């Protein structure tokens, strides 16, 4: 049987042969995943040899899909260069769905977030790109400090996060009881930029990275809820202590421990949303990182919004709508 495919062994030898298909892939209008896969394939197979082609695709004159595919390809073998290209891409507004794809190229590599943060200090993201980037990072539970700081700065959120001191909690609690509006609070809880629903479910709807909040209001006092939301790391709920694992290849995974077989480590990855199994001998580093729930979510809040959100949470499980 004749295969219509070109000789793959030759293709391996010369990454230039891929350029045309990658350019085609990167331009596939309804399949951004495909374009990205093309860029990564070129970077993986060609390594530094594919740099000229990828650099050409990363050119500002190219459509954004091609530039993202190129940055993803370069990230495979040269994070610093990929970071420089990425900060340039993010310095002009990018379609929201593309931001997470682009960032994932960095968050899944050990030195990726810091490298991108350094480039963003030089060439900052637009305000909207930065907000979308933070929204995605919040929803995944990833909080690489330098990268979050770079985006917070570009988004205009670079203020000290609220601290749940006992004074603050007592005063806010009194306001929640006297004038909080649970209906408005529910709208805030469901807002995409906060990502609460990405990780928590209420009434069977929402994500499962964090505990369900069906009965949080009847099960916990208001002061506790305020503290848990403003400073997630103060008391991390049992079995929700997150770990970060780095492999010898420099890949990183974040999530919760899962049942593992002999000689392996298993983790419910909160970013990839699946159980990852890694052979123990592939692991180079493993550390507890506390809660994956982001702090600093509230820097952009008005006091009224905070009051309403906590009223909503306080009433969950108390039989009110
Ligand atoms: C990236 C995922 C994530 C996001 C986003 C997130 N949370 Fe959480 N949340 C968690 C995890 C995991 C825990 C359990 C660990 C801990 O105690 O911090 C938690 C704990 C809590 C708790 C304490 C629950 C308990 O039973 O002790 C409350 C209340 C809560 N979150 C509310 C919120 C609200 C409100 C938002 C949005 C403003 C939010 N969370 C956003 C992951 C998330």
What's this entry about, in short?
This protein has 321 residues and is α+β, with helices and mostly antiparallel strands.
Q: How would you describe this protein?
A:
It is a single chain. This protein has 16 helices and seven strands. It has 321 residues and is of the alpha+beta class. Among the domains are: 77 residues, no CATH class; 92 residues, Cytochrome c-like domain (Cytochrome Bc1 Complex, Chain D, domain 2); 49 residues, SH3 type barrels, CATH 2.30.30. Strands 6-5-4-3-7 form a five-stranded antiparallel beta sheet, with no helix packed on it. Strands 1-2 form a two-stranded antiparallel sheet. The radius of gyration is 22 Å and the shape is globular. It starts with 7 loop residues before the first helix and ends in a 6-residue tail after the last helix.
Describe how the helices and strands are arranged:
Blueprint: H1 8-13, H2 16-27, H3 32-46, H4 51-58, H5 64-75, H6 79-90, H7 96-107, H8 112-122, H9 127-140, H10 145-155, H11 166-179, H12 182-189, H13 196-199, E1 201-202, E2 205-206, H14 216-219, H15 222-230, E3 242-247, E4 252-258, E5 264-269, E6 274-279, E7 283-290, H16 303-315
Antiparallel strand pairs: 1-2, 3-4, 3-7, 4-5, 5-6
Helix pairs in contact: 2-3, 3-5, 4-5, 5-6, 5-7, 6-8, 7-8, 7-9, 8-10, 9-10, 11-16, 12-16
Bound molecules: heme C.
Features:
SH3 type barrels, 5-stranded antiparallel sheet, binds heme C, two-stranded antiparallel sheet, 7 strands, Cytochrome Bc1 Complex, Chain D, domain 2, 16 helices, disordered N terminus, alpha+beta, globular, 321 residues
């Amino acid at each position: 049987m004749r295969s219509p495919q070109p000789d793959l062994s030759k293709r391996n030898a010369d990454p230039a042969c891929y350029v045309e298909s990658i350019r085609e892939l990167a331009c596939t209008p309804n399949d951004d995943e495909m374009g990205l896969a093309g860029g990564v394939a070129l970077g993986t197979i060609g390594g530094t040899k594919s740099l000229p082609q990828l650099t050409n695709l990363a050119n500002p004159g190219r459509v954004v899909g091609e530039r993202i595919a190129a940055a993803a390809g370069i990230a495979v073998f040269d994070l610093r260069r990929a970071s420089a290209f990425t900060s340039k891409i993010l310095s002009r507004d990018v379609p929201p769905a593309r931001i997470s794809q682009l960032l994932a190229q960095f968050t899944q590599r050990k030195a990726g977030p810091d490298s991108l943060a350094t480039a963003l200090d030089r060439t900052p993201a637009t305000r909207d790109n930065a907000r979308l980037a933070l929204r995605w990072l919040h929803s995944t539970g990833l909080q690489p400090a330098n990268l979050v700081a770079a985006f917070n700065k570009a988004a205009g959120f670079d203020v000290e996060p609220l601290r749940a001191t006992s004074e603050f909690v007592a005063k806010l609690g009194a306001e929640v009881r006297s004038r909080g509006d649970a209906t408005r609070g529910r709208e805030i809880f469901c807002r995409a930029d906060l990502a609460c629903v990405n990780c928590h479910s209420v009434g069977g709807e929402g994500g499962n990275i964090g505990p369900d909040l069906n009965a949080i209001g009847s099960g916990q006092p208001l002061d506790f809820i305020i503290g848990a939301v403003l400073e997630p790391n103060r008391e991390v709920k049992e079995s929700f202590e997150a770990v970060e694992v780095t492999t010898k290849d420099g890949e990183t995974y974040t999530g919760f421990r899962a049942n593992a077989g002999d000689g392996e480590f298993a983790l419910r990855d909160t970013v990839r949303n699946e159980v990852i199994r890694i052979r123990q001998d592939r692991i180079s580093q493993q550390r507890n990182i506390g809660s994956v729930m982001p702090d600093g979510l509230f820097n952009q809040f008005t006091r009224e919004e905070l009051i309403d959100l906590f009223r909503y949470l306080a009433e969950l499980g108390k039989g009110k709508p």
